[in-house]
């Protein structure tokens, strides 16, 4: 016999097993839930799509115009090196471009466009929808109409909501988008925004240049005064320290250089005079100078006298040789030679005196120049500190003059820039009126609503499944209870009329079949209901192979789950094959089985157990098979039904009939409602629990199982009853479309 999985004896342990199973991810279960709740998903999807269609039809169409501005960072060649306002430097992060984006979105640009185009009075900026309603409500509590300032502020807010400014990827291009109900107005506003931004940039540059020019004027005046004062200090210091500059430099330096040059020349002249004097002294101390000395002296007198002397010397030598040295002619010639020698000596003495005088003059001049040079050097040493101070003063004066010239040049350039408007921004794509509306976008919204509807539908189905604490599939039974699901019985409806009456004299007390659902297995032998009943019978037979399974108790957790109908059809099905079957109505509190099959019974189980009647006197039978029934008749309140149904008499009765019948099917009361099942459970060989499909709480069933110890050990399985056939088809669609072809329901074509 199939048994429950190992659980604790109380209901909390049973529920913990169920909760742990719920936590597992079971995608097949989710798929089953989606297929089961297809109608819910379809309804939610249809509602979403329908709502979106209605919105698209009723929503005011909006149009978005787009224009593009290029921030050209290339400097203009004209005055590019003299700009007062520097060009922006774009870093890798694009912070400068983002700053320009914020400038375009600024309130100053918005107000300029609003005032230029008179948008305050434009109806496209009038509040709509909830804002219009809210504004109307506020107006009811205000006596004064809105002021122009308030209307302008409201227009600015609406303007900001409709404006979108963004950088185009990582380029220097800024896209401006404006959305409004009018395509032409949107394009007009975008172009106006671009113009206002560029004008604002030019105005900002002009104002910055103007302020710079004004500041430069004041600064130039100060610098001019500073430069003039510094130059005046230089001139005063020169005059005080007798520092005079010439074309060749300062006068003191020029004098020192000239004296030094003259001294060098004087020293050379002195040396030359000394050399001439020494030479003439040597000549004077010797005889008649030779031709070389005469030529060196370059004196005509000495040259002439030397020539005469040489001539006389030649004649004297000739006469002496001819006439002797004492000859008068020789003597006369000798005297003449002596006279000429004296003349040469006198001339040399005279030249020596001249050379001596020249030497003394040259030496005196050299001495004088040396003294002058020493004095100049002394003066240069004493004026060195003055020169250092002068250079400092000249450097300060030159710096002040250069700074003044630089600021003056900048001022002239700034003055030129005021009349030369150059902007880094330029409109590269002017906005045009869009042809297609930007909102609502039907091509996006409709598929989006479809996807959203499907998602919401699936979410609703999954949430419903999580909150749905009932059983709908065999896997639910196996997962949450740990037992086998013997089958799923579709809901059956009572048919009209009744089958043919039993033949007269066939049985003394025939079973009534006024309600066709009590014998549905006979009327629809090929239906899914009957096939599921056969599955239950097979399970009971298999369990009987391992242990005694002759007495079968049919139970349910709560009333109205269809256990009575199930018990009747199970007993009928078992009796079809020639088996002897006893069907006992064991529900002494509410004997519905008796009301359906033996409504005219006067005595039954109670009378048999109390020995007021014998079993044979109260049995009902059905002609044509081995089915017999022991009814239960209520003749008043019976408070001790549990003691009665669990009594020794009940045990003896079941033991007695067990030897005469192949199957004994006992229709027992609900487990939760009364304690009868717990009291009589030890008398039952096997249990079949009937649970209503989609209705009975899992917690209730788990509690019922936990309350009866014997039930856990002797349970064959659980049957899901009253299932919705259409829902079953959706749930079991994974079995194939031909799965249902083996079933033939009443009314279906053969």
Main traits of this protein?
disordered N terminus; 750 residues; 57% helix; 27 helices; rod-shaped; Rossmann fold; 10% strand; alpha/beta
How would you describe this protein?
The protein has 27 helices and 14 strands. The protein is 57% helix and 10% strand. By secondary structure, the chain is of the alpha/beta class. Among the domains are: 249-382, no CATH class; 471-492 and 509-736, Rossmann fold (3-Layer(aba) Sandwich), CATH 3.40.50.300. The relative contact order is 0.11. The chain crosses the membrane at residues 40-58.
Structural category is alpha/beta
Tell me the CATH architecture of the domain at 471-492 and 509-736: 3-Layer(aba) Sandwich
Low-confidence stretches: 1-18, 20-25, 76-82, 496-505
- How many helical stretches? 27
CATH superfamily of the domain at 471-492 and 509-736: P-loop containing nucleotide triphosphate hydrolases
In round numbers, the mean pLDDT is: 81
Give me the side-by-side strand order of the main sheet.
Answer: 7-14-13-8-12-9-11-10
Helix share of residues? 55-70%
C-alpha geometry: rod-shaped
Number of strands: 14
Strand content: 5-15%
CATH class of the domain at 471-492 and 509-736: Alpha Beta
CATH topology-level name of the domain at 471-492 and 509-736: Rossmann fold
| Largest sheet entry | 8 strands, mixed
Instruction: Calculate Rg over CA atoms.
Output: 69 Å
Spatial gap, N to C terminus: 38 Å
């Amino acid at each position: 016999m199939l048994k429950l999985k190992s659980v604790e004896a109380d209901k909390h342990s049973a529920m913990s097993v169920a909760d742990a199973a719920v936590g597992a991810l079971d995608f097949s279960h989710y798929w089953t839930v989606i297929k089961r709740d297809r109608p819910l998903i379809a309804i939610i999807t249809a509602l979403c799509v329908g709502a979106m269609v209605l919105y698209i039809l009723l929503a005011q169409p909006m149009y978005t115009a787009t224009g593009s501005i290029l921030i050209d960072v290339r400097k203009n060649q004209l005055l590019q090196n003299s700009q007062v306002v520097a060009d922006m430097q774009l870093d890798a992060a694009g912070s400068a471009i983002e700053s320009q984006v914020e400038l375009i979105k600024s309130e100053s640009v918005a107000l300029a466009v609003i005032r230029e185009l008179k948008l305050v009075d434009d109806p496209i900026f009038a509040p709509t929808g909830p804002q219009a309603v809210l504004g109307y409500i506020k107006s009811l509590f205000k006596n004064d109409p809105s002021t122009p300032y308030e209307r302008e502020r409201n227009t600015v807010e609406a303007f900001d909501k409709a404006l979108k400014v963004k950088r185009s990827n990582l380029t220097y291009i800024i896209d401006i988008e404006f959305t409004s109900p009018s395509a032409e107005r949107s394009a007009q506003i975008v172009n106006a925004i671009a113009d206002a931004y560029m004008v604002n940039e030019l105005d900002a540059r002009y104002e910055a240049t103007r302020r710079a020019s004004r500041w430069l004027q004041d600064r130039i005046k100060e610098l001019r005064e500073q430069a003039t004062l510094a130059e005046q200090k230089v001139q005063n210091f020169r005059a005080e320290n007798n520092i005079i500059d010439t074309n060749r430099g300062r006068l003191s330096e020029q004098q020192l250089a000239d004296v030094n040059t003259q001294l060098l020349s004087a020293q050379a002249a002195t040396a030359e005079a000394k050399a001439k004097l020494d030479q003439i002294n040597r000549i004077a101390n010797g005889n008649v100078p030779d031709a070389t000395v005469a030529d060196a002296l370059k004196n005509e007198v000495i040259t002439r006298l030397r020539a005469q002397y040489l001539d006389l010397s030649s004649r004297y030598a000739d006469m002496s040789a001819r006439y002797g040295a004492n000859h008068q002619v020789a003597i006369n010639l000798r005297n003449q030679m002596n006279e000429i020698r004296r003349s040469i000596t006198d001339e040399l003495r005279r030249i020596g005196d001249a050379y001596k005088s020249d030497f003394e003059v040259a030496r005196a001049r050299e001495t004088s120049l040396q003294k002058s040079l020493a004095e100049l050097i002394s003066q240069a040493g004493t004026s060195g500190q003055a020169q250092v101070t002068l250079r400092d003063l000249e450097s300060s004066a030159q710096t002040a003059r250069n700074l003044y010239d630089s600021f003056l040049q900048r001022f002239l350039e700034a003055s030129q820039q005021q009349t030369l408007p150059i902007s880094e921004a330029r409109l590269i794509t002017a906005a045009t009126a869009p042809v297609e509306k930007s909102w609502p976008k039907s091509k996006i919204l409709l598929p989006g609503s479809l996807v959203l509807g499907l998602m919401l539908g699936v979410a609703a189905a999954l949430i419903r499944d999580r909150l749905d604490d009932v059983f709908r599939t065999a896997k639910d039974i196996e997962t949450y209870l740990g037992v086998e699901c013997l089958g799923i019985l579709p809901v059956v409806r009572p048919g009209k009329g009744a089958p043919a009456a039993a033949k007269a004299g066939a049985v003394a007390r025939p079973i009534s079949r006024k309600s066709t659902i009590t014998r549905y297995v006979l009327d629809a032998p090929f239906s899914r209901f009957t096939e599921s009943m056969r599955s239950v019978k097979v399970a009971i037979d298999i369990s009987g192979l391992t242990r005694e399974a002759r007495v079968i108790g049919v139970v349910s957790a709560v009333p109205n789950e269809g256990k009575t109908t199930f018990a009747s059809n199970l007993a009928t099905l078992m009796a079809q094959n020639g088996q002897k079957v006893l069907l006992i109505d064991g529900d002494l509190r509410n004997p519905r089985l008796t009301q359906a099959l033996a409504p005219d019974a006067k005595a039954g189980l109670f009378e048999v157990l109390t020995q007021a009647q014998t079993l044979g006197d109260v049995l009902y039978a059905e002609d044509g098979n081995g089915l017999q029934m022991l009814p239960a008749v209520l003749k008043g309140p019976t408070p001790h039904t549990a003691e009665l149904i669990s009594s020794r008499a009940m045990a003896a009765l079941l033991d007695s009939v067990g030897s005469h019948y192949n199957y004994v099917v006992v229709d027992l009361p609900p487990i939760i409602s009364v304690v009868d099942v717990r009291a009589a459970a030890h008398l039952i060989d096997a249990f079949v629990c009937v649970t209503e499909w989609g209705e009975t709480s899992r917690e209730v069933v788990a509690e019922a199982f936990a309350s009866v110890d014997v039930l856990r050990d002797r349970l064959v399985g659980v049957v899901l009853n009253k299932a919705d056939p259409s829902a079953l088809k959706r749930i079991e669609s994974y079995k194939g479309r031909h799965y249902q072809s083996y079933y033939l329901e009443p009314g279906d074509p053969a």
